[in-house]
Specification:
The chain is α+β, with helices and mostly antiparallel strands and 97 residues long. The chain is built from 2 helices and 4 strands. It has helices spanning 10-31, 68-77; strands at 36-41, 56-61, 81-85, 94-96. The chain has a 4-stranded mixed beta sheet, covered by helices on one side. The protein is globular, with a radius of gyration of 15 Å.
């Protein structure tokens, strides 16, 4: 049985914004002063998210690779979907945090 599609309410949107701001705060807190840039990408970056869309975060190291401790900390202590690249693919539409 397929669940009926429900319109997002103002409360849904407010909750999503709060979750997104919390995700940003947690991500930047874990990164700290490391030379790593964080980007929001996927459906939330382009405003096409659904009620239960995940939060996709890309990490890009200034040089070399992202410290594995940063990656594992984000994956283990948050609900974020974390991806890492040596350079962010041009095709990805992202918002830098």
């Amino acid at each position: 049985m397929v669940a009926a599609h429900r319109e997002r309410t103002a409360a849904d949107i407010a909750t999503e914004r709060c979750s997104l701001e919390e995700a940003r705060r947690l991500t930047l807190s874990v990164i700290g002063s490391a030379p790593v840039r964080a980007y929001l990408f996927g459906s939330r970056a382009v405003g096409a998210e659904q009620r239960y869309s995940d939060i996709d975060v890309a990490l890009e190291a200034a040089e070399g690779s992202v410290d594995p401790l940063i990656i594992s900390t984000l994956r283990e202590t948050t609900w974020l979907v974390v991806s890492c690249w040596l350079s962010l693919p041009q095709a990805i539409r992202a918002q830098r945090w």
